[in-house]
Specification:
Layout lengths: L1 H6 L4 H44 L3 H29 L3 H15 L4 H20 L12 H19 L4 H14 L6 H13 L5 H13 L7 H33 L3 H6 L1 H29 L3 H17 L3 H20 L1
Helix pairs in contact: 2-10, 3-9, 3-12, 3-13, 3-14, 4-5, 4-12, 5-6, 5-12, 6-7, 7-10, 8-12, 9-10
Length: 338
């Protein structure tokens, strides 16, 4: 079930819970397990979003966020380091990753870059095998081309609607339907769509949303709840959460009978290798962008560097570092204020 969760887009932890629910209690179990896994995190994040909107301008809150943001950059760097070591299996995939990173930094379409990485590695695997597979991934271009067409229409729909609940739902539905790998890949899509293209969020607000999503229990995808609340209150939070998690329920339901065939396919495996490397490239680019907003002086650079070293080499729980960053931020702001 864990392997199946990694084979489809969406948050793997949530999809694992949905798989277990279906295994134990059929379709009702699928729904109950998924909802119960998501709901507590959504409510906690919604409470944090309310506090942020109500009290976020207070100096104490600003101090906490000042110290926490560099730690969040370090947390993302640690995730990037772990994912890169697993995803870059050979020199060919390393080259794909470098090209994809350049494409993202140059402003290329994120979804197109992910799909291109998957298609290139698929074609290479097909040529190496010198035959077409008879299973679901037998046509190496069919899945990427269909997905690209579907997501392009979804993006167009979302872009044609101003800041509204329907536009918000479509946007997060797209995110939930296309994001492979770590939940941190979501940050690249949030940056590209909500900050750069639609200008619904500032980069500072995105960083704050990432921080809240990291320090609260549950999947990182509940960052959507925080952003939804900022943009549309309680209704926006619920709609964004439903939009980003809904595709996972359908992917789990659709993939369960197909899992044995998919896992036997070398072509499907090659496509996923390419997509995973593309996801790492997206994380590299968005970490660079977010770092420019979070690392504003020598102190924040020092906090981020120290946190990254501690996380990567000593594997300390990130919650302790986030707490330490918050305390450091409070002390600095208090000292400056004094």
């Amino acid at each position: 079930m864990l392997g199946a969760s990694n084979l489809v887009p969406g948050p793997s932890s949530t999809e694992m819970a949905i798989h277990i629910g279906h295994q134990r209690a059929g379709w009702r179990g699928l729904l109950i397990a998924g909802v119960c896994f998501i709901l507590p995190a959504m409510l906690i994040v919604m409470g944090c979003a309310w506090a942020y909107v109500t009290y976020g301008s207070l100096p104490q809150i600003q101090g906490i966020l000042y110290g926490v943001k560099p730690v969040i950059i370090a947390v993302v760097l640690q995730a990037l380091w772990t994912l890169a070591r697993a995803a870059i299996k050979n020199k060919f995939l390393a080259a794909i990753g470098i090209l994809a990173t350049v494409g993202v930094i140059a402003g290329g379409n994120l979804l197109a870059i992910l799909l291109a990485a998957g298609v290139v590695t698929t074609i290479r695997a097909w040529v190496g095998e010198r035959r077409l597979s008879d299973d679901l991934a037998g046509n190496p271009a069919a899945i990427p081309v269909a997905a690209k067409s579907l997501m392009a229409s979804s993006t167009a729909l979302a872009a044609s609607v101003p800041l509204s609940l329907s536009g918000l739902f479509l946007l997060f539905l797209k995110f939930g339907a296309v994001i492979f790998g770590s939940g941190y890949v979501l940050l690249a899509f949030l940056q590209a769509d909500l900050v750069d293209r639609l200008h619904w969020l500032t980069q500072a607000q995105l960083l704050d949303a990432v921080a809240v999503g990291q320090v609260t229990p549950g999947p990182v995808f509940t960052t959507a709840t925080f952003i939804g609340y900022l943009l549309g209150g309680v209704r926006g939070a619920v709609i964004a959460t439903v939009g980003i998690f809904l595709p996972g329920f359908f992917f789990v339901a659709a993939s369960r009978p197909l899992i044995p065939r998919i896992r036997r396919s070398k072509i499907a495996g090659a496509f996923l290798d390419g997509v995973n490397v593309g996801a790492v490239a997206l994380m590299v680019a968005v970490t660079f962008q977010l770092s420019r907003a979070a690392l504003v002086d020598f102190l924040t650079v020092g906090i981020a560097a120290l946190s990254a070293v501690v996380l990567i080499y000593f594997r300390i729980n990130s919650a302790w570092l986030i707490f330490a960053g918050a305390v450091a931020g409070l002390l600095v702001m208090g000292w400056l204020g004094g």
